[in-house]
């Protein structure tokens, strides 16, 4: 999906029926340095194109705001970079409002829309398959960074379901309280407190068996230093490096000395198993074993600011733009 309110599969010819309707799009004008600056993404309004046979018109209701968007804006990685002048790419939730395609029927969604962006969307799926890689065993200690975010908060709850001691790392006391009081984490450490490293060591008296890594940099190095021999490191994301020219590397020496097993993954590799994971996540959500929270920003024009919130810690749980 692209960051626009109409479908990208449509061509650019305006028609009688759609002539008065506008398609609002965010166009990538320049590659950001650090956080997004005003003008890196520019709002453009174009006439809505004519619907052709085999096409459907979708109205985007919500955009999923994900750290990987900053990667897509910078350079080719696991997907090609968004080209300069192209509509910005994002996941999202859209409603089919007109269709000339037999597989896309206009209908009103019947369940809460935004759940498809968080628990049943990219973040829930990422947490699910990342925890499969982690192979958690009852009684083991799991540490997850960016713990109060969309992915980390679900990772920790899956850790509890699997019988682990779960310790989260997050950037405010409010986030840490939410993790312990509402989500059932055993401990949560605010990495902005000066003595957070000591607190993390105290919260993991039996060492760390699993590092679910969302942040990288100093946080990852500190966690690796506390890991038990033969621990597992699931490299899900390295957000502390996404806005930097030189993202820095985790200590390979620690990985060697502690004989750690390190595995990175990209959720798109698991596409053929999404339904299986969503069924399990849906059950956990239905039975209250997974709780979620959303930070909703209103308006497509606010999407660039919303992307920056991910890097300043402005969100709790899933960050969404309501278009
Ligand atoms: N491998 C995959 O396929 C895949 C899929 C989805 C997501 N991911 C990765 O998972 C991670 C979390 O993504 P998400 O979508 O769930 O976002 P999120 O956790 O909801 O939001 C990002 C959070 O990261 C924290 N953060 C940002 N910069 C930081 C820094 N320099 N040091 C420490 N914490 C920092 C902030 O919270 P604080 O207040 O705690 O700082 C922020 O709220 C990202 O690294 C993302 O790239 C990977």
Name the descriptors.
323 residues, alpha/beta, 6-stranded parallel sheet, 24% strand, globular, binds NADP nicotinamide-adenine-dinucleotide phosphate
Description:
27% of the residues lie in helices and 24% in strands. The protein contains nine helices and twelve strands. It is globular and about 65 Å long. With 323 residues, the protein is α/β, with parallel strands linked by helices. Mean pLDDT is 92; it is low at 6-16. The structure holds NADP nicotinamide-adenine-dinucleotide phosphate. The site of NADP nicotinamide-adenine-dinucleotide phosphate has 31 residues, from helix 2, helix 3 and helix 9.
In short:
By secondary structure, this protein is of the alpha/beta class.
Largest sheet: 6 strands, parallel
How do the strands of the widest beta sheet line up side by side? 7-6-5-8-9-10
Distance between the ends:
14 Å
Total strand count, please? 12
Radius of gyration: 21 Å
**Number of helices, where a helix is a run of at least 4 consecutive DSSP H or I residues:** 9
Which term fits the overall shape?
Answer: globular
Give the % helix: 25-40%
Identify every distinct bound molecule in the structure, by name, code or SMILES: NADP nicotinamide-adenine-dinucleotide phosphate
Class of secondary structure makeup: alpha/beta
| SSE run | EEEHEHEHEHEHEHEHEHEHE
- Low-confidence spans: pLDDT under 50, at least 5 residues? 6-16
